[in-house]
Amino acid sequence: MPRSKTFKYILMVFFFINITGCMIDNEPSIKIPTPLSKAPELKSSIILKNTPGLTKADSKPITKKKPVYLKADLIGKNATFILKAFGKPQFQRTDPPSKLFRYTNQFCFLDIYLYNTKTKKVFNVYFIETRSTDGTKTEYNRCLRGMNDN
Most buried among 18, 79, 95, 123, by the most CB within 10 A? Predict the structure, then answer.
């Protein structure tokens, strides 16, 4: 039974594939990272030294600024909210059923009038008045911005 040429070629290709497969090392030439491998650690000082324009001063934490409250934000709020927002008033007066909190800065006076609710326990902001230190009227929002700068 004569062997065909095609069969001989197939047999030779199979033989060469087997021989070349035996000559390959067991270790792959490319290393694939495993999920357990750690990422390289970066040192911030190296980044700052190698990055132009960045200094250690740029890496300081950002401090929160006080929020700026508009008149509409304060009307109806309770005394606790006002004390947290502006701190202890420079002047405080209680004339039942109302309270007055007065805050001052170099530009103006901020008078916050609070009235107690039906429960007589909670005081809420009812009226707000601003005036300059010389007694003339001043813009409300400008005075409030000045209070937040203190």
Answer: 123
Q: What tens digit of pLDDT does each residue of 91-119 get? A: 999 988 899 999 998 889 999 999 997 77
pTM for the full predicted model = 0.55
Asked whether 109 and 102 are in contact (CB, 8 A), the reply is yes
User: 10 Å Cβ neighbour count for 77?
Assistant: 17
Secondary structure of the chain in HEC code, one letter for each residue: CCCCHHHHHHHHHHHHHHHHHHHCCCCCCCCCCCCCCCCCCCCHHHHHHHCCCCCHHHHCCCCCCCCCCCHHHHCCCEHHHHHHHHCCCCEEEEECCEEEEEEECCCEEEEEEEEECCCCCCEEEEEEEEEECCCCECCHHHHHHHHHHC
Please state the domain extents for the chain: 71-149
- Angle at 122 (CA atoms; ends 129, 87), nearest 5 degrees: 55
- The amino acid sitting at 21 is G
71-149 sits in which CATH class?
A: alpha beta
Q: Taking Cα atoms as reference points, which of 139, 81, 85 lies closest to residue 114? A: 81
